[in-house]
Automatic annotation (TrEMBL):
One of its GO terms (molecular function) is hydrolase activity. It comes from the Bacteria. It holds the Pfam family Abhydrolase_1. It comes from Paraburkholderia silviterrae. This is Alpha/beta fold hydrolase.
Length: 297
């Protein structure tokens, strides 16, 4: 086993940074696989930032632990940012655009780390946040990979809010193992792959920071439309973009992915069959190969 492989654990890559957000100073947690000499080659390949979704108990590591190692092995520095209001990052009530809040915090984190330009992988809320960052900081974006998110607004075909979003919001209000299982049952195409250990870890992460759950509910009450509809502005994004969707996504319908590629200047779409809202986890091997090829060519 190489030194790089030994280093990639949540604990060994865990870091904190202080980021200004208006009058606040937020302590933001992130995992950084490029923070040691074993990954010195990352300077040649560049930096990839991964942004997680909005589910209760989500974190960068929980969302992307199946995707880090191939990128590091290819020479990339990989940073997983926990958005404010999730996991070990500071709590916050968001009364405006959550997408833009996360985009500003990402900019602050990159400034602290003295990183000028990054590729961004965003899942669900992370996709929205990646688009917000790209619109505000176009010169700091290399390529984008968006999975199950990127712009708000209604689906033309599915009832809104979707089945999955209703279950997600219900879980925030009543964080029980039963409600977690109900949500996760529609989160992925094949729930038999979800182990009891995974469920327990997710529940423990949720309950460790009840203030995050309470603040999410307060945020929705203050502004039910947390994620900006960037449809009219998508044409401003020139960064090469790979949009990846699950054909069976019951949280964000596939026609939202079609809106993204119709609006962006340089976007392509890949659809996984038998896949829900967690493409990077459900089809990890194929996803990793696809992303590496996209970033390298």
């Amino acid at each position: 086993m190489t030194a790089t492989a030994q280093a990639i654990t949540e604990a060994s890559t865990s870091r904190f940074a202080h980021v200004k957000e208006g009058e606040l100073e937020l302590k933001i947690h992130y995992n950084d696989t490029g923070a040691n000499a074993a990954n010195a080659a990352s300077a040649n390949a560049g930096t990839v930032v991964m942004l997680h979704g909005s589910g209760p108990g989500a974190s960068g590591w929980a969302n992307f632990n199946r995707n880090v190692e191939p990128l590091v092995a290819a020479g990339y520095r990989v940073i997983l940012m926990d958005c404010p209001g999730w996991s070990k990052s500071d709590p916050i009530v968001c009364t405006a655009s959550r997408s833009e809040l996360n985009g500003r915090v990402l900019k602050g984190l990159l400034d602290v780390l003295d990183i000028e330009r990054v590729h961004i992988l965003g899942n669900s809320m992370g996709g929205h946040s990646a688009v917000a960052f790209a619109l505000a900081n176009p010169h700091r974006v290399g390529k984008l990979v968006l999975m199950g998110g990127g712009t708000g607004g209604p689906s033309n075909f599915a009832p809104m809010p979707t089945e999955g979003i209703k279950l997600l919001q219900g879980l925030y209000r009543e964080p029980t193992i039963e409600n977690l299982k109900r949500m996760m049952n529609v989160f992925v195409y094949d729930p038999s792959a979800l182990t009891e250990d995974l469920m327990k870890a997710r529940l423990d992460n949720m309950l460790a920071q009840r203030v995050h759950l309470e603040n999410f509910v307060k945020s929705l009450a203050a502004n039910p439309k947390q994620f900006t509809d960037y449809g009219p502005r998508l044409g401003e994004i020139a960064a090469p973009t790979l949009v990846i969707w699950g054909r069976d996504d019951r949280f964000v319908p596939m026609d939202i992915g079609l809106r993204l590629i119709a609006g962006m200047q340089n976007a392509q779409l890949h659809v996984f069959n038998r896949c829900g809202h967690w493409a990077q986890w459900e089809h990890a091997d194929a996803f990793n190969r696809m992303v590496l090829d996209f970033l390298q060519h």
